[in-house]
Design brief:
- Helix content is 51%, strand content 12%.
- It has 139 residues and is an alpha/beta fold.
- The protein has a single domain (6-124), classed as 5'-nuclease (Rossmann fold), CATH 3.40.50.1010.
- It has a five-stranded parallel β-sheet.
- Helix 1 (10-18) crosses helix 2 and helix 1 (10-18) packs parallel to helix 3 (45-57).
- It is globular, with a radius of gyration of 14 Å.
Length: 139
């Protein structure tokens, strides 16, 4: 794990794919930097499924397999979900009211010892032990 390593939320990948008007360009730059090894990135298998699901909802479902296979070929550490992560995520969600998917991201971060999350989701802001990095800020 590098000092720059962060958990990368699915919105960073998705915003790069759709070239979101606010985040798209910067998210694309971040993914290019991660692909070259300049940023250490960790994702979970849930991130891949979330990207595929968002693409389907956005009318890009036909390209989801190709795009997600490409994401999996990047030098990210990919953490598979396991029973321990799911139990922890359920506890986080129950105790905090946070959504279940975001709780899985936090539980995965705990599992691998990360405190930094690269995300456009402001819902991670102010969480104890979590350092939210906005994609628009320098990484």
């Amino acid at each position: 794990m590098t000092s720059k390593e962060a958990y990368i939320d699915s919105n960073v990948i998705f915003y790069a794919i759709i070239m979101d008007t606010v985040y798209g360009k910067r998210c694309g730059e971040i993914l290019r930097e991660a692909a070259s090894g300049g940023i250490g990135g960790t994702i979970s298998t849930l991130v891949i499924i979330e990207v595929a699901n968002a693409m389907k909802k956005y009318g890009l479902g036909r390209d989801a397999k190709k795009v997600c296979t490409g994401v999996m070929s990047m030098p990210f550490r990919i953490v598979p979900l396991n029973e321990q992560i799911v139990h922890r995520a359920l506890a986080i969600s129950h105790d905090s009211g946070m959504g279940h998917y975001d709780s899985v991201h936090l539980a995965t971060m705990e599992e691998v010892g990360l405190s930094r999350i690269l995300t456009a989701d402001k819902g991670f802001e102010g969480r104890q032990g979590v350092d939210r990095l906005d994609p628009l800020d320098s990484v």
